[in-house]
Design a protein that fits this description.
- The chain is α/β, with parallel strands linked by helices and about 250 residues long.
- The chain is built from nine helices and seven strands, in the order ααβαβαββαβααααββ.
- It has a single domain, classed as 3-Layer(aba) Sandwich (Rossmann fold).
- It has a seven-stranded mixed β-sheet, sandwiched between helices.
- α1 runs parallel beside α4.
- The structure holds S-adenosylmethionine.
- The site of S-adenosylmethionine (SAM) has 22 residues, from α1.
C-alpha cells in the first residue's frame, strides 16, 4: 500500500472506532500522572500527536497544562475529541493534521504520542517530523507496538480476521474480548472491545523495539529512557513507552 492509501484507510478506520468508544477520563488521568508526572504537565505547552478521542489532551488540560493542541488525521476522532473537551469544560485546540506532512510549525515543551506513529505509512518520517516540533529542552513521550518473536502470529491473525466482512468486525471483536479477558477496561481507560477492534482490524501497523527507537533519538542527539516495557498483560500485545529529551535523563 502506498502512503496516500494507508493514510486514507487508517483515517476512515478511526472515523468509526473513535465515534463508537469513549475512554474513561479518570483512568487516563491516573495513568498520565503516574508515568508522565504533574511536573511535566502543569504550566507546559503540550502537543498530543494522533490524539484520537482527545482523552489524553483533555486530561493534560484538566491537570493544569498551559496550552494543549491535539492533532489527528481522522475527522471522526476530532469530532469526539471536541465533544469530550466541551463535556469536561476545558479549552483544547483540536486540528486536523497529517504526521507525514505537518502543517503545524509551533514548538512545544512536551510532545505526547501514544500508539500512533506505527499506524502511519512511514513511522520514522513521522517521528522525525515530531522531533522538529520540540523545544530545545522539550520532552517527547512516545508509545509504539512492541515487536516480539510472536509478532508474526498476531499479524497473521490480523490478516485472516480482516478477510471477514466489515459489518462483522465489531461482533468478532466483542467475542475475542470475551475469550481473551474478563477485564472490562485497560489501565488507560479504554473499552476492551474497542481495543480488540483496534488491535485486530486496523488497516496498517508496524512493530518496533525500544533499542530501535533509542537509535532514532540518538540520531537527533537525544537521550532516551524506557518508561514502560509493556503496557499490557503480554509483551506481544503491548506498546512500550519511551521518553526522549535533549537534556539529562531525569523525568
Ligand atoms: C490507536 S489510535 C491512538 C489514539 C490516541 N493517541 C490514544 O492513545 O487513544 C491512533 C490514532 O492515530 C491517528 N493517525 C494515524 N495516522 C495518522 C497520521 N498520518 N497523521 C495524524 N494522525 C494519524 C489515527 O487517526 C488514530 O486516532
Amino acid at each position: 500500500m502506498d502512503e496516500k492509501k494507508i493514510t486514507k484507510e487508517v483515517s476512515e478506520f478511526y472515523d468509526v472506532v473513535w465515534t463508537k468508544y469513549l475512554p474513561k477520563v479518570e483512568e487516563q488521568k491516573t495513568f498520565l500522572l503516574k508515568h508522565i508526572g504533574i511536573e511535566n504537565i502543569k504550566g507546559k505547552t503540550i502537543l498530543d500527536a494522533g490524539c484520537g478521542t482527545g482523552v489524553a489532551a483533555v486530561c493534560f488540560k484538566l491537570l493544569g497544562a498551559k496550552e494543549v493542541v491535539g492533532i489527528d488525521i481522522s475527522e471522526g476522532a476530532l469530532k469526539t475529541a471536541r465533544m469530550l473537551a466541551e463535556r469536561n469544560k476545558v479549552d483544547v485546540i483540536f486540528e486536523k493534521d497529517n504526521l507525514l506532512d505537518l502543517k503545524l510549525k509551533k514548538k512545544f515543551d512536551i510532545i505526547h504520542s501514544f500508539g500512533v506513529l506505527h499506524h502511519t505509512a512511514d513511522c520514522r518520517k513521522s517521528f522525525d517530523n515530531l522531533v522538529r516540533l520540540l523545544k530545545p529542552d522539550g520532552k517527547f513521550y512516545i508509545a509504539l507496538y512492541l515487536k516480539t518473536p510472536l509478532t508474526f502470529l498476531q499479524q497473521s491473525a490480523r490478516f485472516f480476521l480482516r478477510l471477514f466482512p466489515k459489518s462483522m468486525w465489531v461482533f468478532i471483536s466483542s467475542q475475542i474480548k470475551k475469550l481473551l479477558s474478563g477485564k472490562k477496561n485497560t489501565k488507560r481507560g479504554f473499552d476492551g472491545e474497542g481495543d480488540m477492534l483496534d488491535w485486530f482490524f486496523v488497516p496498517y501497523r508496524t512493530h518496533h523495539t525500544p533499542k530501535e527507537i533509542e537509535g532514532w533519538f540518538r540520531e537527533h542527539d537525544m537521550d532516551s529512557q524506557l518508561l514502560i516495557a509493556k503496557t499490557g498483560r503480554y509483551a506481544s500485545t503491548s506498546n512500550f513507552l519511551m521518553l526522549g529529551s535533549h537534556g539529562p535523563k531525569a523525568k
